[in-house]
Every structure is written in C-alpha cells, then in structure tokens.
Specification:
Blueprint (H helix, E strand, L loop, with lengths): L30 H6 L1 H11 L9 H31 L1 H24 L20 H22 L8 H23 L8 H30 L4 H26 L14 H14 L9 H14 L1 H4 L6 H30 L7 H35 L4 H12 L2 H27 L4 H30 L4 H32 L32 H26 L7 H20 L8 H26 L7 H23 L5 H35 L40 H12 L2
Helix pairs in contact: 2-3, 2-5, 3-4, 3-5, 3-6, 4-5, 6-18, 6-23, 7-8, 7-16, 7-17, 7-23, 8-16, 8-23, 9-10, 9-13, 10-12, 12-13, 13-15, 13-17, 14-15, 14-16, 14-17, 15-16, 16-17, 18-19, 18-22, 19-20, 19-22, 20-21, 20-22, 21-22
Length: 746
C-alpha cells in the first residue's frame, strides 16, 4: 500500500495485513476503507505540507483558508449523515455519536487554524494559525482521519441488514448527502497534465460510474434471492471491478503502485515502429550513436508482435500473406541499410552519403507500409465485428430465455456470448497495437477489460433470471448488464473513429466538451452551433447536477416499487417522470437519445407537463382523504405545481448565443432536479395515505400499462410511459463514498 500523505505526521501505512493505523487506536484493516479516506487525506495534506515561505502572498493565504473551510464543511456534511444513520440504528447510536463529535471538533480546529486572514494582519498579534502552530493542524488532521474512519467502520455494519426495504431506504437517503461530500473532498485533486494519466483516470471513472448503475440491481437481486449462487457471483464481480478501479485511481493520485511493483508499460507495434524510425533517421546526424545489433533487435521485437495479427483466426488469408511479405521486405531493407551504414563507418564519413540516405528512406518507407497494413487489418476487423453485433441478437435471446426460465437456452446463448466476447477481446488487442497514442492505447486496454469482465456478468445475471423467471429485479438486473455491454460497443465505435483520425492526421485540437450545449438547431432562426468548450467549473457544475438527477431517479424508483398497485396513476406518472429525468441525466454525459439542446428543452417541457398532470391526479386523490390528512399533501402538490410551471416557462423561453443556451440548459436541469425532489417527497406521503385510506383509492385508474424500456425518450406529451432502472447501487458505504468521490472529482 502506498504511504499515506500524512505519514510524516503520524498517520502511517504499510503493505502488511494490518493496514495503516491511526493515533487514536483505530486500525484500518481493509484497503477499501483506507482508499475511501484518500481524498480527505490529500486535502489535509495540502495544509500540512504547505511551504513555509517568509513572504506569503494573498493568493497563498486565501488558498489555505479555502482548503481549511472545505475540509470543515465536508466533515460537517459527513457528520449530518452519520447522525441520521445513528438515529435510525439504536445499536450503533452511541459509538456513531462519539465519532461524529470527534470529527466535528477536529474540523472546527482545522478551520480555525487556517483562518489566516490577509497580509495586513501582523503575525505577532497573538493569534494561533497554521503558520504559528503547524503541529496543531497535524494533530487535528490525525483526529479527523481517526474519527471519520470510525464512522466509516461503523457504517460497514449496515451491510448486514437483512430487510430489503430498510436497505434501500438507508442508502437512498445517504446517496444525496454523499454527492455534496464527494464534491468537497474531490476538490483536492489538481488537473492532471499527463495525458496518459488522464486516460487512466477516465477509464477508472468510466468503470466506477457504470458499476454504480449495476450495483443496486445486483445487490437487490442478492437480497431477494439470498440462496442463489449465480446472483452472488454477479454481485461480487461488480465489487471486485470497483475495487480494481479504485486502486487505479489511488495509484494515479499518489503516483505509487499499491502492490509496490514497478508498472510495466505495455508494448505495442506503433510505439515500436515510432522508436525504430527515430533511430534509423538519427543515422543522418550521427553514424555512431547506436549499434547495428540494437537496431536489428528493435525490428525483431516489432515483427514478433505482428504475430498477433498473423496468428489471429480473424485475420483474412490475403491480409496475413501481405503482412508476412512486408515483414520480410522490411528485414531485407534493414540488412541493406546496415551494410551501407557499416561501409560509411569504415570510411569514417561524417556526412550522410547518397547511398545511406537512400537506404534510410527505403527502410522507413517499408516499415510505414507495414504499419499501414496492420492498421487496415485491425480497423477492418473492428468495423465488421461492430456491424455484426449491432442488432444485439444474443443479448435479446438471453433475456427471452431468462424470462421463460429456459436454462438450456440460456446455456446455449451464453456460449455464443462467450464466443462474441473472445472476438471483441481479440480485436481490442489488435487495435491497441495501432492506436497511435498512449491515451488511446489505454482506452483500448480498458475496452478489452470491460468485455472480458462484463461477458461473464451477463451470463450469471441471465442464469439468475432463468432460475427465478418471475423476479422483476432479476430481469432489471440482466437489462442493466446488457446495457453496459451495448454501451461499450458504442464506445468502441467512437474509439475506432479517434484511432483513424490520428492515423490520417485529422486530429488537431483536443476535442471540445460536447455534452452541453450539444451542437444542433435550437430554433428556426439559429444556425447550427459549433461544439462548446466548457471550463472546469462549468463541467463540474453540470456533472454535479446530472449525478444528483441520477440519484433522484433512484429515490423515485425505490418509492414506486413499494406500491402493490403498479397500475396506479400516481405510480405510472412517477415512473414516467423518473424515466424522463433519467434521459436528461444521460444527456449531461453526452449519451442517450437526446442529441441536441433543443431535444433537451423539448424533453424538459414534456416533463413539466407530466408534473402538472400528476398534480391533477394528486388533487383528485386528496379529495378522497379526511381533512386531517390533506394539509401535508396539499403543500407538496402546490410545490409540484409551482416547480413544474417554472420549468415549463424556462423550457419554452427562446434563447440565442452560446452563453444563454448553456444557462438555459443549466436552469432546465436545475429545475428538473427541483421537481424530482418534490416528487421524491410526495410519493411516500401518498403511499402512507393510500394504505391508510384504501377505500378512497377509486380515483387511481390505469389506462396504460408500464412499458419495459428504461431508455425510451418521451417526445410526445401524451406518451408518458417508460421503464424504471434503479440508479445508485445498494452497496457497502465505503465503496459508495469512494465511488462518488472519484467519479465527481475534477
């Protein structure tokens, strides 16, 4: 395990089985809990490791003060969650409360010590600050890390909860608080300048985000079917992948391998050819800077890797023969180059002669031809494979077989999916060889790992459904894993396009952030907008709102699941609105069926209309209630009407220009979030009243059935059907916190 950033201050870590220990006596024995603390540790380390300069600028002082305040606020929010959970779990209350008190005291101490004011205040005024008492910050940091760890360790006990409703309810409530906590702790991470590290971080975040979508359904399936081995394997697979992604994030942040091993850079053909050509062309400047043996060895390594292509069962015979022919020709050209080169050395020539120049050009031309052939072979294979699997026939067949409880058919299609997985893994390896840049090479490896892991997870989810064909949650679980597979295939198409862009020299500037606003026509009088580049603050704001929207869809879906009458109008409208909010969340990530800002605005308008229709249904429901029960519901109905009307006005308002469009997008998502917050409050109120007044439920008619497509985007005001997929995972709290932290940190 990497040494903790605070190890110099008494917080130490080691790779031993005991983990790292804190001065308060609490010993962290699991790597995952330790990883949860990494962001907060880094934030505190910023305070402890600041440079003691004689001259302190206003900028330095303000930065220290902001970090101290951020830590205190993060702790405050964390405590709020801890206290709430303590109140709901009496057996944990005393221990949790003590830990929260310690954390609060430590957070306030850090805030006080970092309240350094401005340069105008003399350091001799008697105030104790971080500059006059650094050991105070160290002590407070130790105390904070210890108490936060106690809170996390205590929360781990929640994993043992056996009640399904209690399990979902606690984590649904906890998730909203953790979004804010993730932002505050995530602020400690500076922007990575290394493109390779950025690519690794992007891959790890992609894993974490997709895993959060899988974890709730996998965990709920395990709870619903505790004796099902395939369900257990399915859930454990998600946890394992998240742990691996978290370890990668920690390695990037700390720049240290967790297992202490030195990272071995993967060898690809494009890097080998690039280095080989550099050495060959370097002979023009210096005939004596390398040996002929080293140049020959470099080519041998390149040709050895071309065997990945020639040995592949998916490479055509003609392509294989052409690669072998070019490989042989390149060896011949190198031999001729070496002969001319040695002759020039014997003549002690200082300037490149015509024969040597010609030999250099022929060798470089030949190796370029080989690179071009390999690139063509890999990209054609990927293109053909993506076309072949575009209809997702195997996934559809697995779903049908699972619902029918046909284990034999599931086994048959599981074999076909395994074959498909092997094909995709193989082409990812070939594509890595011709990726053209290190970041794209890392993305290829990420794609390979994703197919390698997701394939068996789909199979285990299908087996679970086949064993429990009437299980709604098992069906949703399989759909979520299939969606992850389909998403990775879409990502492969994008990756292929980027690799082709690099190869053909079309890749110039870094890509613009396309998610918001999206290029497209925003009204009849406007021209198509170019992609808009958002700064870090704007991207962070949009990501935060999008993730909050995702969490709220989870809350609403959890509430609607409680209703016995799934055909109730309240439930149907709630599910439809959750589906629309989910499509808007996908838009913030540049995914889904909403492609332009105009699509988003139209969706927001339909969503607002659905909110007003639900308000009418709720009013009808309230008329069936006794006077004592009405006030609370009527207050929430008024809020729903108000928020829906505001969103409707915003969505219809015409805008023009980059900044106004972005502002409108931001406002639409913000107001949609507001409507979803009210919806998440009103549903449990209606549920309680509906159970209390079953006789007054005649107004809840269900003219339409609930469709089974979660990603269906509503584009017609009368078509308000969609499907509900749970959002944030029901999981160990430590993974929940760590996932959100690393997912949201910018």
């Amino acid at each position: 395990m990497a040494t903790s950033p605070c190890s110099s201050s008494g917080v130490s870590s080691s790779s031993s089985s005991s983990g790292f220990s804190l001065d308060s006596g609490l010993e962290i024995k699991t790597r995952s809990v330790e990883q949860t603390l990494v962001p907060l540790v880094s934030q505190i380390t910023t305070l402890i490791n600041h440079k003691d300069k004689l001259k302190k600028s206003d900028k330095t002082l303000q930065a220290i003060q902001r970090v101290g305040q951020a830590v205190n606020q993060a702790v405050g929010r964390f405590i709020t969650v801890g206290e709430a959970i303590a109140n709901e779990n009496r057996e944990l209350k005393e221990e949790m409360s003590m830990a929260c008190i310690e954390a609060k005291r430590a957070g306030e101490t850090i805030a006080k010590l970092t309240d350094v004011g401005s340069l105008d205040q003399p350091e001799s005024d008697g105030r104790v600050t971080i500059f006059t008492d650094k050991t105070g910050v160290v002590k407070a940091a130790r105390m904070l890390l210890s108490s936060v760890t106690k809170v996390l360790s205590t929360m781990e006990q929640l994993e043992k909860i056996g009640s399904f409703q209690e399990f979902v309810q606690i984590f649904s409530q906890f998730g909203n608080e953790m979004v804010e906590f993730a932002h505050l702790t995530g602020d400690r991470q500076n922007d990575l300048k290394d493109e390779k590290k950025k690519a690794k971080m992007a891959a790890a975040r992609a894993v974490l985000e997709k895993c959060t979508m899988m974890l709730l359904t996998a965990s709920k399936t395990c709870l619903r079917h505790p004796d099902c081995e395939s369900a257990r394997i399915n859930k454990e697979g998600v946890f394992h992948r998240m742990r691996m992604a978290l370890e990668q994030v920690v390695e990037i942040v700390t720049d240290v391998r967790l297992n202490g091993e030195v990272e071995v850079a993967p060898v690809s053909i494009y890097t080998g050819i690039k280095e080989f050509k550099s050495k060959v062309e370097g002979l023009r400047e210096n005939l004596y800077f390398l040996s002929k043996e080293s140049l020959s060895l470099m080519l041998e390594l390149i040709l050895e890797h071309t065997e990945d292509f020639t040995d592949s069962a998916y490479t055509s015979h003609e392509c294989r023969e052409h690669i072998l022919e070019l490989s042989k020709q390149t060896k011949t050209e190198l031999e001729q180059l070496v002969a001319v080169w040695m002759q020039a050395q014997n003549q002690k020539t200082k300037v490149t002669n015509e024969d040597l120049e010609l030999a250099i050009l022929k060798t470089c031309q030949c190796i370029d031809e080989l690179k071009k052939e390999l690139h063509s072979a890999a990209t054609v294979l990927v293109t053909d494979l993506l076309k072949c699997h575009a209809d997702h026939i195997v996934l559809k067949a697995l779903k049908i077989a699972g619902v029918e409880g046909n284990l034999e058919a599931v086994a048959e299609y599981a074999c076909k999916l395994s074959e498909q997985k092997e094909q995709l893994v193989e082409v990812c390896r070939l594509l890595r060889h011709v990726s053209g840049t290190e970041p794209l090479e890392i993305t290829c490896m990420h794609a390979e790992d994703t197919f390698q892991v997701t394939g068996p997870q789909i199979i285990s989810a299908a087996e679970t459904l086949a064993l429990h064909p009437s299980s709604k949650i098992a069906k949703e679980n399989l759909a979520v894993f299939c969606e992850a597979w389909e998403s990775q295939l879409s990502d492969m198409a994008i990756l292929l396009r980027e690799i082709n862009d690099v190869f053909e020299g079309r890749r110039g500037e870094k890509r613009a952030y396309l998610s918001l606003p999206r290029p497209g026509k925003h009204n009849a009088s406007l021209k198509t907008l170019k992609p808009v580049k958002l700064d870090g603050e704007e991207q962070g704001k949009i990501a935060k709102l999008g993730l909050e929207l995702r969490l709220l869809t989870s809350d609403v879906d959890s509430e609607t699941e409680k209703w016995e009458d799934q055909e109730s109008e309240i439930v149907r409208h709630g599910q439809s609105m959750s589906s629309m909010a989910y499509s808007m969340y996908l838009f913030t990530r540049g995914e889904g069926l909403l492609k332009t800002t105009q699509d988003l605005f139209h969706q927001a308008e339909v969503f607002a209309t659905a909110g007003l229709k639900l308000s009418a249904v709720l009013h009808a429901f309230s008329n069936q209630l006794e006077d004592d029960d009405k006030p609370l519901l009527l207050v929430e109905i008024d809020k729903l009407i108000s928020m829906s009307q505001q969103l409707q006005i915003t969505a219809k308002a015409p805008v023009q220009g980059k900044i106004p469009i972005f502002t409108k997008v931001d406002t639409c998502i913000l107001k949609t979030r507001g409507v979803m917050i009210v919806l998440a409050r009103v549903l449990p109120v209606c549920y309680r009243l509906q159970r209390k007044h079953k006789a007054g439920n005649g107004c809840l008619r269900s003219p339409r059935t609930w469709k089974a497509n979660r990603l269906q985007t509503v584009t017609n005001e009368d078509n308000l059907d969609g499907k509900s997929v749970e959002a944030f995972g029901v999981k160990s709290l430590e993974h929940h916190v760590a996932n959100l932290t690393f997912l949201e940190s910018k």
